[in-house]
Amino acid sequence: MSYFEHAGCQLHFEDHGQGSPLLLIHGLGSSTCDWEYQVPLLSRSHRVIALDVRGHGRSGKPREAYSIAQFADDAAALIEHLSLGKVHLVGISMGGMIAFQLGVDRPELLHSLTIVNSTPEVRAKSLGDWWQLGKRWALSRLLSLETIGKGLGRILFPRPEQAELRQKIEQRWPQNDKRAYLASLDAIIGWSVREHLGRITCPTLVISGDRDYTPVAHKQSYVELLPDARLVIIQQSRHATPMDQPEQFNTTLLSFIGSVEKT
What region holds the AB hydrolase-1 domain (predicted)? Predict the structure, then answer.
């Protein structure tokens, strides 16, 4: 286990393998643990760094408000702490938002960007949006982490053969710090960098599960705003694509990174 201090928080990260650096950033309520199907393979050809976002995993959990910009600044600090230079950055869900923010704020740190089942904005644009965001905000406060974990397990991994994956979510979710979890959710709601996507000039891969929460059309709409981006859809996959379709995900990611490094 490795740690470094930044902006009043001790941040945990894992560091595996050798080669061009690849930084993995998890989603809300997750940790480095959820890259378990990626790290062993990716670290055969790359130096793979997985970060526990502030408020998550083994990282510190300051009792304060969080922001996506703050999370991105932590990631930038890790890149500089390890003297990595440009990295291949991979972020899923909230991690994808952090990756978008870093791409906008510090494009010079990125060799490539991979966004998995994420979005460049979480803003309500209709009554339906307000209802969905409000419901999520309220239920996250009313329900226990155990209850949320069980519900998420059923949503993310509904098939009988996915029982082991459901159990992982059910076991890991209650390990979150509730206050830090809610502070991270609050950081997401109302955030946006959609209007600044033109600043992200590095090659960008957007991966979408065909059954993700947000439709493929939503991803296509922002792919068109990025200067150098492509969209790949992975079939039979929901929101946790690196876990429910690890082989397809890993092959797609390595193929993309390989193509970037050839140019």
Answer: 21-125
